[in-house]
Amino acid sequence: GRDGAREFDLTLRADGHSAFLPGKTTDTWGVNGAYLGPTIRARRGEHVRVAVTNLLPEASTLHWHGMRLPARMDGGPHQMIEPGATWIPEWTIEQGAMTSWYHPHPHERTALHVYRGVAGLFLIDDPAGPELPSRYGVDDVPLIIQDRTFEGDGQFDTNVLGGTYGLIGDTVLVNGTFDPYLEVGSSLVRFRLLNASNARVYRVGFADGRTFQAVATDSGLLEKPVPVDRVKISPGERCEIVVAFRAGETVIMNSVGEPRQTANDIEEDDFTLLKIVAGPELTRSAAVPATLGGTATTAPPAGSRVRRFTLSGSEINDRDMDMNRIDEVVPAGALEIWEIDNTTFAHNFHIHEVAFRILDVNGAPPPAYQAGPKDTVFLPKHATARLAVRFGRHTDPGWPYMYHCHILRHEDRGMMGQFVIV
Ligand code: C2O
Ligand code: CU
Ligand code: CU
Q1: Domain of 80?
Q2: Residue limits of the Plastocyanin-like domain (predicted)?
Q3: Do 17 and 97 belong together in one domain?
Q4: Quick one: average pLDDT of 200-219?
Q5: How far is the C-alpha of 155 from the C-alpha of 193, rounded, in Å?
Q6: Do 243 and 108 lie in a common domain?
Q7: With pLDDT > 90 as the criterion, what percentage of the chain qualifies?
Q8: Number of domains within the chain
Q9: How deeply is 390 buried, as exposed, middle or buried, from its count of CB atoms within 10 A (0-12, 13-18, 19+)?
Q10: Are residue 172 and residue 270 in the same domain, yes or no?
Q11: How many A from CA of 4 to the centre of ligand 2?
């Protein structure tokens, strides 16, 4: 733009036809194209302005999940865009390198809009960051993981969004592709995993059990790479991993469920996610640095304010979402402990605007690969999580941010609350 801002145009469309299944066509929604949307990216310190035009047949929003910005730019349920209208939020990128994403957030309609295909990635780059594989689509590959259920004629089945969890699809799409395949040409490849499913939880790893390195959580880099053989991601969560390949090999990325006795439906099933074929000769990648620049989790000082949230079937603190009620008022820049007590089946918990650290789940620290900055945390049934939450400084008593379960059925049923920063 003339003022030096980086400008993007995103148009929500409902006229897509996608060929997911062999010989069948699916009517889809998307951003700028038929299904999902473009990956947009900006650097720390840049000012961004996005023109979001809604060509859907109904009102919607576009929310910047993971972005720290003023509440009226957040794209939550208070920033509805009527059909045919354009909404133009702008803000300055104040956070470091991360993988964030955008998706609709209309109150009570989010599950359907995301299911039909409206979502995309927003990557933040930080020139001061560590050297990691970063050639987009070559050795830095986003993987947007979504389950779907198809009708016999190839359409998305929209009768499966009810019940306890809403959609628990039987078919997985990665980047909008059924049965995907990737050729790699370097010895190390970074994958940016995003769980953009309505409800399912994935435990991502490889069929041969190989270890790989986790380098970033939802909202930024870990302190140092963490060797793992599975990473668990619930809806809304991201995890960046770096995987080593040998020339000529074929590797299957998959998801393996939790044991049935301990898990809820959304955690149980196994899926093949991606077939990866390494070229006959691989470019040798620079090793992952021993330190990545993220910081370790430190406990908030004694006396920090503690807020408690009890999750039940579809309520938080025994209340449904009320667009006209502010549930929490938080001082600018506060560091607080949020204690999330899940009294029922599996949920997760997402907070807009903030970055938090998981202090503990059921009293134990999280696995090392989840010890970085987060905005969404999974809560197995009957689990309690304690979060150290750092709030931003965009004060506005008139516009709230949301916190909610990111299982979209639950969010739509009112498992959401509102806070303002003052
Ligand atoms: Cu991913 Cu309130 O959103
Ligand atoms: Cu969000
Ligand atoms: Cu939930």
Answers
A1: 6-125
A2: 19-128, 312-421
A3: yes
A4: 98
A5: 26
A6: no
A7: 97
A8: 3
A9: middle
A10: yes
A11: 27
Q: For residue 131, is it within any domain? A: no
pLDDT value, residue 1: 77
Rounded to an integer, the average pLDDT of 15-40 is 98
Q: For residue range 90-129, what is the model confidence (pLDDT) as tens digits?
A: 999 999 999 999 999 999 999 999 999 999 999 999 999 9
Residues 266 and 363 in one domain: no
Q: How far is CA 320 from the centre of its chain?
A: 23
Specify the pLDDT at position 262. 83
The answer on 278 and 172 residing in a single domain is yes
ipTM for the complex? 0.99
**Following DSSP, what letter does each residue of 308-334 receive, concatenated?**
EEEE-SS-BTTB---TT---EEE-TT-
The residue from 229, 251, 283 where one domain ends is 283
Rounded-to-integer distance, Cα 390 and Cα 373, Å: 10
- Whether the full predicted model's pTM is greater than 0.80, yes or no, is yes
Closest residue to atom 1 of ligand 1, CA basis: 65
In a domain, 364, yes or no: yes
Is the model's pLDDT at 2 over the cut of 80?
no
The set of protein residues with a Cβ atom below 6 angstroms from ligand 1 is 63, 65, 103, 105, 236, 350, 352, 402, 404, 406
Output the six-digit token pair for 98. Answer: 């991360």
Question: What Å distances lie between residue 12 and 33, 58, 74, 237, CA to CA?
Answer: 8, 11, 17, 23
Ligand 1 atom at minimum distance from 402 CA = 2
Structural domain contains residue 272: yes
CA 90 to ligand 2 centroid distance, Å: 16
Chain centre distance of CA 307? 24
Q: Which of 283, 316, 339 is the last residue of a domain?
A: 283
Question: Does one domain contain both 66 and 39?
Answer: yes
Residues 260 and 164 in one domain: yes
pLDDT tens per residue, range 288-298: 999 999 999 98
* Coil, helix or strand at residue 391: coil
Nearest-CA residue for atom 3 of ligand 1: 65
Q: What is the mean pLDDT of residues 194-213?
A: 98
By the 8 A CB rule, do 381 and 264 touch? yes
Contact 79, 87 (CB under 8 A): yes
Q: Residue-wise over 62-79: b if at least 16 C-beta within 10 A, else e?
A: bbbbbbbbbbbbbbbbbb
Question: What average pLDDT does the chain have?
Answer: 97
| CATH code for position 66 | 2.60.40.420
Q: Are residues 151 and 271 in the same domain?
A: yes
The verdict on residue 1 lying in a domain is no
